[in-house]
Amino acid sequence: MRPWAPRAFAFAIVALGVTFCLSAQAPQPAPAKLPGEPHHHLKIDNAYVRAYYVELAPHEKAPLHQHDHDCIFLSLGPSDVINAVPGKPDVHLVLKDGEMRFARGGFAHVTRNLSDAPLRLVAIEFLRHQGEPQNLCAQLVPSSPLGICSRTSVSSKDRAFSLEPQMETAEAEVDLVRFSGKRCDSALYSGSLLVSLEDPGIQVNLEGSTPSPLHQGEMIWLGPNVLGYLSSLGGDSSRYLQVTFKDGGTRASD
């Protein structure tokens, strides 16, 4: 070996170490803000909620993005995803159609679709802190037990209606609603968000307004003093999510 070879080798090792340290200290990209992340399509934005339709192609990922508010994620169809929060172990989630999760705001994450099918979600952000959430008939808050499950059901010769409370907070109640038959005469609550969970879906018929058909993943906000009814768009039974705010939608906009 030539006399200068050990010094050259040592210099290469030092240079490699410096390169490694510099890359380890390279700043991470800032998370994208919501609204703004292109996979999150903003549908409802008011003083209560921001609601998004989210879609990822097979094996696609949504880059690092920030959720500043408490939120609910709802799966439209079965999903197989990785939820990656910087500094924490990745979480593998296999969700059934219509399954929901509640998450506290103030986190950034990357979502990766592991499936060969598109990933479709609804993300509902509450624009005010919701206090301590309580599970009711479903476990939206993974670390909390189920609560009192008080279902409401009405049936007649040609139609049936049921309301199953999923979760409650200080400000809102989250309900899963099912009805069969062509028309549902249940009350439409002021200050509520409706999300259709399946196709062909439902139609919202409000007095003085053009009927609003809602296919799977589509949504509508009902303001104060609503009157009307729901009808089916052709299915034997229909499901929708209803998030109702307890002040009846009377809060002034920010």
Q: Mean pLDDT, rounded to whole units? A: 84
Assign the CATH class of the largest domain.
Answer: Mainly Beta
CATH topology descriptor of the largest domain:
Jelly Rolls
Binned strand content: 35-45%
Shape: globular
N-C termini distance = 76 Å
Total of domains: 2
The secondary-structure class comes to mainly beta
Helix content, binned percent: under 10%
Main beta-sheet strand count, sense and barrel state:
7 strands, antiparallel
Q: What CATH architecture of the largest domain would you give?
A: Sandwich
Radius of gyration computed on alpha carbons: 24 Å
| CATH H-tier superfamily of the largest domain | Jelly Rolls
Which parts are unreliable, with pLDDT below 50 for 5 consecutive residues or more?
7-26
Report on this model:
This protein is mainly β and 254 residues long. The protein has one helix at residues 5-24, and strands at 40-45, 49-56, 61-67, 71-75, 79-84, 91-95, 100-103, 107-113, 119-126, 134-135, 152-155, 160-168, 172-180, 183-184, 192-196, 202-206, 212-214, 219-222, 228-232, 237-245. The chain has two domains: 40-126, Sandwich (Jelly Rolls), CATH 2.60.120.10; 134-245, Jelly Rolls, CATH 2.60.120. The chain has one helix and 20 strands. Strand 11 (152-155) and strand 12 form a beta hairpin. The longest helix is centred in the N-terminal third of the chain and has 20 residues, at 5-24. The protein is globular, with a radius of gyration of 24 Å. The termini are far apart.
